[in-house]
Design brief:
This protein is of the alpha+beta class and 135 residues long. The chain is built from 5 helices and 3 strands; from the N terminus they run E-H-E-E-H-H-H-H.
Length: 135
Amino acid sequence: MLRQPEPIQKRRSIFFAKFPPGQVSEASGFLGTLGGLELALREAVRAIDVAYDLRRHCLQELEGELEEQGYHLDNTLMNKMRRALIHYVEETQLHNLDTPARPLKRSQSEAYTHAWERHPHGDHDDTPPEWREYK
């Protein structure tokens, strides 16, 4: 029986520009149609708090969807840097989830041992044993 991987919950805030006004409530309506998201509006700071499973969504995807719909995100330097860092971290985490499990040390060393035995190297002496002991 295959076990489903545990969700990787992320909680992020998406900040919107001052203009045009009213974007936060409209954007939350749009994000609500995507599914798999928990939303909380913070109108006072023009933000939506979003909770999602990283295996289903990522912040870069959500922001891209919003921008395609014509919403304007806050592009202050601090928010740009914060978003870039989050995008990098989530992309790296998703990449690492696809990485196969590392082999155990024992099987790994066995593979090197077998390869070493088959590879001709300086430690092999092809001289017959009776000739090696000839004096």
